[in-house]
Amino acid sequence: MEPIGFNKERTCEVLEKHDLDVLIASTPVNVFYLTGLPTLHVAANPILYVLYNQYPSLSIVRRDGEESLITWITYRSVNKFSWVSDVQGIASPKAAMVSLSDKIGEWGLSNSNIGYESLMPSYQSEYLRSSFPNASFINGDQAFLDMRLIKSEEEIKRIKKSTEISEKAILNMIKASYEGITDIELLQIARRTIVNEGAEGWDHLTMNLGSSDPEAPGIGNNLKAGDLNRFDIGTIWKGYVSDISRELVIGQISDEAEEVMNRMIQVQEFCEQNIRPGLNMKELYTDANNFSKSLSKKGRAFITGHSIGLECEETHLFSPMKKLDRPFEENMVLDIEVWQSFKNQGLVGIEDCYRITSNGCERLSSLDKNIFIK
């Protein structure tokens, strides 16, 4: 079994950079990343996720890249999914912590720098602190992020497939749309498409019909002629997520809405054309904002680039909320979205997935960017 995204060499470099002797994964997403064990909520049988409170799965990696895995003793198929050979079976939360502590002691790291997730349950972190009073406990969130930001070819393949399915779901929603259709019916179309295409499920099904709340679809809102409608879909394919959105109008689109959308596309394409390995993310964000302002003084474009992979928003690389002071690197995968508020119609904008290559930025999405009109 080959690792999906985990890279031993890069992991060693990251742990060295953060001065961590051992790093502990306690959340399902990072356990999956380090081991391949199907701990995600979209696994074929998400039993390890469901029973996490009773039989927690934990994984640890040493500074030299050596790994160990702790999981439910009844789960007999670890070797079908995980590349980790050192596996300990447990039957209770306490047993998990005893096994974890024993392994740290066996590795001779009782007085070392131990990295842990900020989301680690308190009973786990408290047990470790009491077991290793002379150790230094360090927040390891950034170490996990540094490992996950650079994607393997297999990860990129999965994100691209996820993107294709999200686009099919959006197209099927658009094809089925007519005046009077409800958001309930449209969500059903999206879900059926995603499942029929072989994906495990969806990360998000964001949608607004006119002025409806995009974060809370499925309450019976009707599509009306002339309204702007946004479909924002994230499919999960073999654990990996995409993030695509498109706009639809039934009937006549206003010149003003079309003008705003054209600007949003131009700003997104400015980002696409300028992102390259070595360019600082803060610099790109400043340049993109200046370009947006040069197009129009009316309204404000919200420009965001967030890393995608096992989560839809692993972190914001650049956005109004957060800007990382670091360069883009080859094989980062990000979603570039540009929005502007529009009257009482919510947001007008565009959202696509991209891979950073040695030469620049490659769009993984393929849908037409303009507002769809029926």
Care to give the gist of this entry?
With 374 residues, the chain is α+β, with helices and mostly antiparallel strands. The protein has eleven helices and 16 strands.
Q: Give the class-level CATH name of the largest domain.
A: Alpha Beta
- DSSP helix fraction: 25-40%
CATH architecture of the largest domain: Alpha-Beta Complex
Quote the average pLDDT. Answer: 96
Please outline the major beta sheet. 6 strands, mixed
Low-confidence stretches: none
Strand content: 15-25%
Number of strands: 16
- CATH superfamily membership of the largest domain, which one? Creatinase/methionine aminopeptidase superfamily
Structure write-up:
44% of the residues are buried. A hairpin with a 2-residue loop joins strand 8 (228-237) and strand 9 (240-241). The strands form 3 sheets. This protein has a 6-stranded mixed β-sheet with strand order 4-3-2-1-5-6. Strands 7, 8, 9, 10 and 16 form a 5-stranded mixed β-sheet that branches. Strands 12-11-13-14-15 form a 5-stranded antiparallel β-sheet, with helices on both faces. The protein has helices spanning 8-17, 28-35, 47-50, 78-81, 93-106, 122-131, 141-149, 153-176, 183-196, 255-274, 281-295; strands spanning 22-25, 58-62, 67-72, 87-90, 113-116, 136-139, 201-209, 228-237, 240-241, 244-249, 302-307, 315-318, 333-341, 347-356, 361-363, 372-373. The longest helix is centred in the middle third of the chain and has 24 residues, at 153-176. It is α+β, with helices and mostly antiparallel strands. It has 11 helices and 16 strands. It folds into 2 domains: 8-148, Creatine Amidinohydrolase, Chain A, domain 1 (3-Layer(aba) Sandwich); 153-373, Creatine Amidinohydrolase, CATH 3.90.230.10. Helix content is 35%, strand content 24%. The N and C termini lie far apart (48 Å).
